[in-house]
Amino acid sequence: MAILTATGILEARPKVGYFYSGKKGFNLIADYFKNLTVSEIKSRPVVVNEDTSVYDAIVTLFLEDVGTIFVQNNGYLSGVVSRKDFLKIAIGNSDIHKMPIGMIMTRMPNIITIRDDDSVIKAAQKIIEHEVDCLPVVEKVDEKNGKELLRIVGRVSKTNITKLLAQFVE
To answer: Where are the domains positioned within the chain?
Structure first.
């Protein structure tokens, strides 16, 4: 009874008791996820500066146990580097100790971002559509020379969304 009441399928009224609300369980679940925002599930971003060496960025990737690192320049999002990017450069004959991360990162405007007030569903759709593991959560700070400057405030990954689903089922 408590679960049915909490999900909104049953309503409880004093002196009346329990009665069917008319709402379908699936619609309630869908509404819950549609109303959940990125700010409620985001995690801390792992960020390095553009002049960080590829080697140091790889060490950061493993120490932080993430699959994506965000790159900033003067405090603003300038790039993204994934495990695949690191693998490609490490297999080649490049000196990863001297090469800056800025040489291998994916740059703006090719970075898919999300904002705090966007829905979790929108984040999941972007991850699926663009086949990425993680999205930077950003806030617009300013515009300079026609370019939007974005500050990194979090990240949403496949893991964040999977944890949300697992918590919901529990």
So the answer is: 2-35, 38-169
Q: 30-34, 69-73, 94-98, 161-165: which range is least confident on average? A: 30-34
The 68-73 sheet, strands edge to edge:
47-49, 68-73, 76-82, 106-107
What secondary structure does DSSP assign to 94-142, as a single string?
Answer: --TTTSBGGGTSEETTS---B-TTSBHHHHHHHHHHHT-SEEEEEEEEE
Fold classification of 38-169 is: CBS-domain (3.10.580)
**Other CB atoms within 10 Å distance of the CB of residue 94:** 14
- The owner of tokens 């309503």 is 11
Task: Name the nearest CA neighbour of 70 among 60, 83, 80, 56.
Answer: 80
Higher pLDDT, 21 or 87: 87
pLDDT tens across 1-60, in order?
555 666 666 677 777 676 666 665 556 667 777 789 999 999 999 999 999 999 999 999
Other C-beta atoms lying within 10 Å of the C-beta of residue 151: 15
Q: What type of residue is 120?
A: V
